[in-house]
Design a protein that fits this description.
Length: 455
């Protein structure tokens, strides 16, 4: 009963839902990423932003596993995404307040609340992006989402670039934060356009989800069960690494080497690189001339090659920077005044964006593979992924906020990348071709047995 061939139903297809949730992400986490990409949330004091990120990651680590999947599968994606988007506005407001009051506690508190909101938004978003599409369309849907989502960060950073072009203060202007808050609020409202998963019809006329009567306890237990999957154990370091390098890239590299206007420009190009890279890599992961196993294996091979090349470039830059360096002095590289010296670090930051996009695209492709096109099961795997990602983010933020020597921080980041690519080999080796809707049919039968749904 996983498929329904009634062509008279007035429903949106999968791409409509992915585009709508992409515009929510454009306005909320997209603007958040724009602030983060500038470095330090647009502040000269990067320690406050790092402490806020610790609070965000710590709270969301628990929320991602124990709250997000349960509420997504009980309330539905529309309401969880709407509720999850509101704390983004508060976070931007806390940075505006910090500019005038130096109230670090407000930033940290707003960040903690954002951890809950991010859990709800990202898990519902992940369930839509990986659970709705058919296997041969998952890469393209991930790429489309990544383009629209990162377009928010790109535009946000270009706004910051224009507003702060002549700034010498080291922090972004009040107008930057106000503009971001307005865009974030508009993004929240886009959630009203989402449908129930049952009302979404795929291209093969199957429903994206079965009709269910979810119960909180059943959802809680089902979420915990995904942690027993050996494939999840193999993927944990790969998932932890997904956002681990953000702190180094944005706070230690971009925020420490460049002037404020250049940080904004670099941030915009970082997200532009993500837009291009994710879509191209997503198309590869949908390659119709290869089966699913081949696409998965080659996806990990390509990700490994890109990772090693980009981080080798990072090593070259590390050897030429520092407080006593005449070549890359701190906070002085500028898009206008530094000439050719600006090009190398800028290109490196651009390709850091490529590295991140390829890694994240492959992460979500693996979740789509694990969940077998079931949005309910996808929410649970996304919850596990986001929990591990948040743990990695909290650790990275702690390292960053402790002002660890930048060479040590770089070495830790690259080592984690290498380790995760080795640890994931058992999962990669066991990738198989999986029939469409296999997970959806299993989910329906399970719900029928546990909750009294008519089979």
């Amino acid at each position: 009963m996983g498929a329904n061939n009634d062509e008279n139903l007035e429903v949106h297809d999968v791409s409509h839902e992915v585009v709508i949730v992409s515009f929510v992400a454009f306005g909320c986490p997209g603007m958040y990423n724009a602030l983060s990409g500038i470095g330090g949330g647009g502040q000269l004091d990067t320690t406050t932003a790092a402490k806020g990120h610790i609070a965000l990651s710590s709270v969301s680590a628990a929320g991602n596993l124990f709250v997000g999947p349960v509420l997504t599968n009980t309330l539905g994606p529309k309401w969880t995404i709407l509720i999850g988007g509101l704390p983004y506005v508060l976070y931007a407001g806390s940075l505006l307040a910090y500019t005038h009051t130096n109230n670090q506690g407000f930033v940290v508190g707003a960040s903690a609340l954002l951890g809950i909101g991010a859990s709800l938004l990202w898990i519902s978003q992940g369930a839509i992006m990986t659970g709705y599409p058919l296997p041969q369309h998952q890469g393209r849907m991930i790429g489309i989402f990544w383009i629209i989502f990162n377009l928010g960060a790109f535009i946000g950073d270009m706004i910051a670039f224009g507003l702060n072009f002549n700034s010498t203060s080291g922090t972004v202007s009040d107008g930057t934060y106000i503009a971001f808050m307005c865009i974030m609020a508009a993004g929240c409202l886009c959630a009203f356009g989402l449908l129930k998963p049952y009302d979404v019809i795929r291209e093969d006329k199957s429903r994206a989800a079965v009709e269910r009567k979810p119960k909180v306890w059943v959802e809680f237990v089902a979420t915990l069960k995904v942690l027993k999957d050996w494939r999840v154990v193999s993927l944990i370091p790969f998932w932890i690494t997904a956002n681990y390098a953000y702190n180094y890239q944005q706070n230690t590299f971009n925020a420490k080497l460049f002037t404020i206007r250049t940080r904004s420009f670099n941030g915009a190009m970082y997200w532009f690189a993500q837009m291009i890279s994710s879509y191209i890599f997503g198309l590869f992961l949908d390659n119709k001339y290869m089966n699913r196993r081949q696409r998965g294996i080659w996806g990990f091979v390509i990700t490994t090659i890109i990772s090693m090349i980009v981080w080798a470039g990072g090593l070259a830059a590390q050897l030429r920077r520092g407080p006593n360096s005449d070549y890359y002095p701190l906070n002085e590289l500028d898009i206008v005044t530094s000439g050719g010296k600006f090009a190398g670090p800028f290109l490196l930051y651009f390709f850091y964006g490529t590295f991140d996009a390829v890694w994240q695209t492959l992460v979500y492709w693996t979740i789509g593979y694990l969940s077998h096109e079931s949005p309910e099961q996808a929410a649970r795997y996304v919850g596990a992924f986001k929990c591990m990602e948040a743990v990695g983010g909290a650790i990275a933020s702690k390292v960053n906020s402790d002002k660890t020597n930048y060479n040590v921080e770089f070495a830790i980041d690259w080592s984690i990348v290498v380790f995760s690519l080795i640890w994931v080999i058992p999962f990669v080796w066991k990738i198989q071709d999986v029939p469409a809707h296999a997970g959806q049919e299993t989910e329906y039968v399970k719900d029928a047995n546990d909750q009294g749904v008519e089979a």
